[in-house]
Amino acid sequence: MFREYFPPTPSEIKKFWKSATVVVDTNVLLSLYRTSDATSKTLGEVLASLSDRLWMPHQVGLEYSRNRLSVIFGMTAPHAQALKNLQALKQTLLDQPTIAKDAPMQPQKVFDKLANRINRHIDKLTKQ
């Protein structure tokens, strides 16, 4: 009587984990696009291991279908902005006035090194 007011016993919890139907939420499925590859892979493996007990309500499937592309495109926006910022920073470095070779300070060497490092990061971002 009034079971909802008493926590389940350890044996009940164990039974739930072994036999309960698992219902996923839309955000669980969309998180596959929002997390790292390793996390997405792990979540996929967990869902696959529960496949015989996994249930997805119609509403979850509908919301997933409606939101999947916007989540994917939303994940590319920060990537594109980072690339744009790196390119602008590189251009700022390259636009610095040239200093005479006999000047005591040679910031151009530092600027060139930074521009080369930025190029490497731009290449990495472009290949992803």
TrEMBL record:
Residues 22-127 form the PIN like domain. Pfam families: PIN_8 (PF18476). InterPro entries: PIN_8. It comes from the Bacteria. This is PIN like domain-containing protein. It comes from Subtercola vilae.
